[in-house]
Each structure stands twice: as structure tokens, then as C-alpha cells.
Amino acid sequence: MEKDTYRINQIVRISKLYYECNLGQVQIAEKEGISKSTVSRLLKMGKDLGIIEVHIKEPAMMYTDLEDELTRRFPLKRATIVPVMVDNPQIVLNDVCAALIADLPRYLENDATLGIAWGTTLESLSAMLPHFRCQGISVLQLTGGYSRLAHETSALSILQKFAASVDGDAYVIPAPAIVDTADIAQAIKKDSQIQNIMQMAQSCQTAIYSAGAFGRPSVIFEMGIIDDVQYAKMAADGCIGDCCGHFLNADGGLFDEDLDRRVVGVALDTIRQIPNRLLIASDPRKGKVLRAALKGGLASHLYADVKTAEAILK
């Protein structure tokens, strides 16, 4: 009886030292004059006897149910949803960017290829990038970014910031995202520099991009790629947005194959084959186009805020 009481008291004492005083098992072993393995065994006995009960309290900012619903409904490997702590779109976007940046090392391998799009979301992301210890990473543009108007896409700046963050080489597509005719696009793609980028995209391991809602505000719209008349017709015909310069229908497929032949960039089918397709978004107004992108298999991993995630699931 005395032996049992001593053992129970020892378990309680060790448990308090471990869980309440935050001492390590080695420190407890030295203090008690026993081995580390004995400390580990006594802690296990405490759990088995019901003396120790471990409760994991899920923080209010975690949205595991929402993340599970997204991975259930769409072909996603993982969804990461961040809370909306303040009613400020830029701060919310920064929080989403921070979540992706925290995970980015797991997607970066030495001598790998990283594909990057452009736009306001990627511009914010690129401005927050820390320095990663990498070697031999090639960073390439997924679509052309030069504007035919004075509107600035920041495509080159975004590419340069990503390349600098991984000590990599940057490969730019020196052309507009969309040109006037398919013949012009084909002629541009014959350039050796662009052909090289298209070939590199075939072995790209990770790509990072967002999706744009159709209409204003939209970088694609402001660049002058489509005018008001074209916009009205495309909207009536079911275009809901774009991803990497490719206009999408509600199922995430190409809205218009003829129009897509005018795109100077990596083909949508090639993007779908990239193992790590990181789709980042922070704007509930993009719910439809994001839903389409997910349905079309354009993302393996989603990073979004809770309001945007809820808009996707509506």
C-alpha cells in the first residue's frame, strides 16, 4: 500500500514538474535521481491511470472544419485559412501572405524551378519575402507582363524580388500577357528566350499565383487587353475571370480557345501538371473565379482568409 502511495505521489510530482514547471525530462531525472527513461515511463503511467489528462484547445483563429470542407469539395491537398482580425483588406492580405511564406521553405528545393505570376496579390507577397537559404533555383514568369498602356503590372519587380529571396536566376517573358492575334503570339513564342522558359516550365516543381475576377478592379482590365464592348460580350458568354493570363469559365476550363491562343505564357494544361500549385487569395469578391480555379485543378494548395474561403464555398 505504501509502495503504491509512493508511486502515485511520484507520478503526480513528476507530472507537475513536467507540465506545470516546464522542466525537461533530463532535468526531472537529475532532480529525482532516476533515469530519463523512468521519467518517460512514469509520465505514460500517469496518462494510463487517468492522473494526467491532456486537452488540446483549438484556438479561435483555426478553421479546420472550413479547411476540411475545401479539401473535400475540391482536388486540393491542403487548404490554409487565416482569420480576419481587423477590417482592413491590406492587413488581411498581408496575413494570408505571411501564412504562405511560413510554408514556402517546404516547397523550395535546391536546383529546382519556381514559377511566378504577377498582380496586386503577388506584389504584396513579393514585398514581404524574407531571404531563404537556397541554391540553384530558377524563377520564371508564367505569363507575359508588359502592358500596352501606361498601367504598371510590376511583373518584373515581382520576379526580381522572388529571385533575390532565393538567390536564384530570374527568367522574364519580355512580352504582353495577351497580344492582338494568335499569329503574333506564335511568332513571339518562337523567340529562343521564351522557348527556353516554356521548356523550363515543363519541369517546374512549384508555382505561385492568384486569380483575377472579371472586370474592374482588375490588372488585366486596366492593361487595356479587353475593352468595354469585349467585356460585356465575354461576361454574357460566361467568362468569370482569369488565372495566369488565361480566361476561365465556371468549371475552370478555358473560356475561349481562340482567345487563349493570343496568350503569351505557359499553357494552362502545363500549369495543371506542376506538383505544387499554390493559389493565394484575399478578396471575397473573387469567390466565383477562385471556385472555378479549384474545380479546374489549378491549385494543389490554397491560402486564403476566412471570408474569401466562405465566398468560395457559397
Give an overview of the whole structure:
The chain has 314 residues and is an alpha/beta fold. It is 45% helix and 12% strand. The chain has a seven-stranded parallel β-sheet with strand order 1-10-9-5-2-3-4, sandwiched between helices. Helix 14 links the parallel strand 9 and strand 10. Helix 1 crosses helix 3, helix 4 runs parallel beside helix 15 and helix 14 crosses helix 15. The relative contact order is 0.14.
Short note summarizing the structure:
By secondary structure, this protein is α/β, with parallel strands linked by helices. It contains 15 helices and ten strands.
Oligomer: single chain
How is the main sheet built? 7 strands, parallel
> Fraction of residues in helices?
40-55%
SSE order, one letter for each helix or strand: HHHHEHEHEHEHHEEHHEEHHEHEH
- Output the structural class: alpha/beta
Computed over alpha carbons, the radius of gyration is 26 Å
Low-confidence stretches: none
What topology emerges from the helices and strands here?
Layout lengths: L1 H19 L4 H8 L3 H13 L15 H10 L4 E5 L6 H15 L9 E4 L3 H9 L9 E4 L13 H11 L3 E3 L10 H8 L2 H10 L4 E4 L2 E2 L5 H4 L5 H9 L4 E3 L2 E3 L8 H4 L7 H5 L3 E6 L5 H9 L5 E5 H8 L1
Parallel strand pairs: 1-10, 2-3, 2-5, 3-4, 5-9, 9-10
Antiparallel strand pairs: 6-7, 7-8
Helix pairs in contact: 1-3, 2-3, 4-15, 5-6, 6-7, 14-15
List keywords for this structure.
alpha/beta, 10 strands, 15 helices, elongated, 314 residues, three-stranded antiparallel sheet, seven-stranded parallel sheet
